[in-house]
Amino acid sequence: MIDLHSHVVPGIDDGPENIEESVVLARAAAAAGTRILVATPYVSRRYPNDSTTIAGRVEALNARLVSEHLALELRAGAEIALSRAIEAEPEELERLTLGGGPWLLVEPPFAPAARGIDVLVSDLLRRGHRIVLAHPERCPAFQHDPRMLRTLVGEGVLTSITAGSLIGRFGTSVRRFSLKLLREGLVHNVASDAHDRYARPPGMAAELDQIGAGALADWLTRAVPAAILEGGEIPSRPAVSLPDLKPARRRLWARGRPTRAV
User: Fold this and answer.
1) Residue 73 falls inside a structural domain
2) Domain coverage including residue 143
């Protein structure tokens, strides 16, 4: 599998604090079946990282993973806040793409009152950037107006939802919206958005299996992300009907802690 979204780089955002914790996270990703892991530290006002800093940290972590004999390829990327993407120089955005390909991972705002997301994303598209939206299922603006997301997808935007959203790690409402987007064909990729080994783990396959995604899982975690990294044509979604996606079993997750399912 290919995981396009992870916070595995140490000491740069709210992911691992040190390289030892990064190795633990990377080892868990490899054990979960991930073969390519894209490190996507935040580039935001809170975490004003840049391409040079990210590249250096990824190189250092890669060297450590090689010394640990981990069967995991680490590539550089970034999770860029929409506001920062609009302000950044074109050359810097080109250096912040996912794994060196042509696509940017852009984070929409979480503020309930955020407006004009579609206008800003469309502006990035007009500038020639290819956009993957990070966890749109958790964006209040899209929850309140799913038509806005449908329109952006129609303009060529791809979406990457977090695997944990599908099984309730971010609450019941987010889970329902995630499944709705998946049923409607508005999801192109599932990533882990891993931050640590336990509360925000680097899994994808188990979560997709839990909801009964079947043959669609390979398209979401291998075929599409491979095309994103290579800059190739996005493969057509397989003809898989998902009318009865399974709800989360036994326990839901919220804020990294298990709670009883409802």
Assistant:
1) no
2) 79-260
User: Is the overall model pTM greater than 0.85, yes or no?
Assistant: yes
User: β-strand 158-162 against 189-191: which pairing, if any?
Assistant: parallel
Q: How many domains does the chain have?
A: 1
The position carrying tokens 């064909």 is: 185
Closest CA to 3 of 51, 41, 31, 39: 39
Amino acid 111: pLDDT? 86
pLDDT in tens, 98-112: 999 999 999 999 988
Query: Which residues of the chain, if any, have pLDDT below 70?
Result: 242-262
Measured distance between the N- and C-terminal CA atoms of the chain, rounded to whole angstroms:
31
**Which domain CATH number covers 128?**
3.20.20.140
In this structure, the chain runs to a length of 262
| Within a domain: 238 | yes
